């Protein structure tokens, strides 16, 4: 049974494996491909407001963060990032995390959720966000240099939670 | 005569006055309205790749920063932020800085420039960016809580520099 709970300090060693696997490929996130553990912890656990994990027994299968997307007058809109272990793909974990993160966002007082950089090449993610009612509110031309597909556009997706 | 040059450490005391004036009002930037000097220095001088000032004699009338908008595969698109001292408004300083920042962006190897959060209430800025050939590529619904106008939309504006 897969459970969602907030990440603790000791979870980071497993989160790092997932993060490192995804960032090294560099096909989905605009994060330096050689980010080390210290950088990863800052990005995924220290900068965000909260970090969550999807866990089965002792194994972390996925993780997400939630944070204000902007400061000051923009702090009522949150941003989340999701990562799923490659060996756990296809089990609906991203879907479960996205659903729960929207509930959590409302609990934390956010009014909307924004994804800043969804690559058009990441069709699986786009399909999922659309299913959850996110709308495309922007498109950044050739904003990402994909490791195999060259320059690809990135979408900005937005969902009102109120 | 107004000159544009890179900011030095000692310029920060004057940059802080401009930053503080603008951020306290909180009507244009999604930055915490009570940001202190340490935070301001981090945002405007330490995090960016470069910081520039528009200076007349010994007086700094405006300032801008330039930095990669995203890391990794997104690092070829830059982001700039501009601030002009209220007493120096209307003298074309934002315009001069925007023009020069595009030249500088190309020198630094950037292929495009993106503004992530241009409030629809900031009509002066929008007019200027459109004049310079920036295009609206996105619109974030009610993404900013304006101090007097309530929730306002923010535009994402983009210009290819190649």
For this entry, give a set of tags.
7-stranded mixed beta sheet, globular, homodimer, 7 strands, 162 residues
Describe the structure.
Chain A is α+β, with helices and mostly antiparallel strands and 162 residues long. Chain A has a domain at 2-114: Gcn5-related N-acetyltransferase (GNAT) (Aminopeptidase, 3-Layer(aba) Sandwich). In chain A, 30% of the residues lie in helices and 38% in strands. Chain A is built from four helices and seven strands. Chain A has helices at 12-25, 37-46, 93-107, 123-131, and strands at residues 2-6, 50-56, 59-68, 77-84, 112-119, 135-146, 150-160. Chain A has a seven-stranded mixed β-sheet, with helices on both faces. In chain A, helix 1 (12-25) packs across helix 2. Chain A is globular. The termini of chain A are far apart. The model of chain A has no long low-confidence stretch (mean pLDDT 97). Chains A and B meet through strand 5, strand 6 and strand 7 of A and strand 5, strand 6 and strand 7 of B.
